[in-house]
Every structure is written in C-alpha cells, then in structure tokens.
Amino acid sequence: QVQLVESGGGLVQPGGSLRLSCVGSGFAFSSQIMRWYRQSPGKEREFVAQINTASAITTYADSVKGRFTISRDNARKTVYLQMNSLKPEDTAVYYCNAAAFETWGQGTQVTVSS
Question: Is the pLDDT of residue 55 over 80?
C-alpha cells in the first residue's frame, strides 16, 4: 500500500523559510520520480517541483524558481522541499506525489502571513 506522509508546514512571515519533508512507503521509493504540488483554497492543485530518481534533474514551476529547492534522500525514502523567500501567495496545502501512483498524503499546511 502506497503511503506518503508530509510534514514541516507552519505559519511563517513573508521572507521566511520552511523545509517540508515527505516520507514514502509501500513502493520502491528510489525508482520513482517525486513531485511536490500545492493547493490553495478555491484553486486547483498545481505543480511545484519535481526531482528524478538520481537527483540529477530538477524541475520547478516558474512561480517558485530560484526560491524553492527540491531534494531527496533515497536511503531515508524522503523527499524535501526547501522554501526560501516565502510570499503570501505561497500559502497552500503542500502535497508530495510519486509519479507512477495516484496517491496523495494528507498534505501539510503552509501559511505565509505577517
């Protein structure tokens, strides 16, 4: 059974930083492209970042490029999202996803507000 558990969200002031984590289980983590998505109230879920299996290739949405960094630790079956220079428009529930599966965790809430 594929499971994804996100953590690390919280309330942060504009310009601040957060590091999100997502632990995967029930599948061959190291063989999967991993992605982060986010969803704000009233909006569709949107792509944020992607990392390939060997961490050699990363892709970002234009809205987060230069501020967010995706990384992974295959030994720990964990994918991370380092978020710097946060803006109020980054406020959302953040989800991770393994590319081959239509499985979503509970997400972690990120709120950027002064």
Answer: no
